[in-house]
Amino acid sequence: MKKEDIKKHKGELLDSIVRNSGMTIKAVAKAAGYDRTSYYNHILEPQLPYKIISRYGEALRHDFSNEYPEEKVTRPTHTKEITTFEEMEKDRDYWRERFFRLTEKVADSFKEESSGEV
After folding, report:
1. Is the separation of the CB atoms in 43 and 11 below 8 Å?
2. I need a labelling partner for 79 at 20 to 30 A (CA). Which of 2, 92, 102, 116 fits?
3. What is the C-alpha to C-alpha distance for residues 99 and 101, in angstroms, rounded to an integer?
4. pTM reported for the whole predicted model
5. Is the Cβ–Cβ distance between 39 and 29 less than 8 Å?
6. Three-class SS string for 39-96?
7. Any residues with CB less than 8 A from the CB of 34 and at least 6 apart, and which?
8. 10 and 47 in contact (C-beta within 8 Å)?
């Protein structure tokens, strides 16, 4: 298969990179969060979603944005992975408080609208 054809078939490109990685298919699939059966189904997909490809890329430590620059998704640099229970609680409390503040603003807005219409 020609190089430009393999770029069109995302599953085949994935298979080529995995086979040249030196890792076993089972190990790559597991590291990406899939099983071997899913991997074999993925490599049959010519239009494999970039989200799936990027999970394999993380497992392989391979940047697929080089092959598909048009699909590169930029991640916010300010996000931090939550690794402890305390961090999870802190994050939960932050979003809970933010939700309640927003809900109060919306409720106040509705009150103002309804009192102005009478």
Report:
1. yes
2. 102
3. 6
4. 0.56
5. yes
6. HHHHCCCCCCCHHHHHHHHHHHCCCHHHCCHHHCCCCCCCCCCCCCHHHHHHHHHHHH
7. 42, 55
8. yes
pLDDT at res. 15: 94
What is the Cα–Cα distance from 1 to 82, expressed in whole angstroms? 43
Q: What are phi and psi of 84, to 5 degrees?
A: -125, 160
pLDDT digits (tens, 9 = 90+) for 25-62: 999 999 999 999 999 999 999 999 988 998 999 999 88
User: In angstroms, rounded to a whole number, what is the distance separating the alpha carbons of residues 30 and 46?
Assistant: 22
The Cβ of residue 101 has, within 10 Å, a number of other Cβ atoms equal to: 10
Query: What pLDDT does residue 83 have?
Result: 86
Residue 33: phi, psi to the nearest 5?
95, 20
Distance CA 2, CA 117 (A): 68
Q: With 80 as the cut, is the pLDDT of residue 73 above it? A: no
Is the confidence at residue 3, as pLDDT, over 60? Answer: no
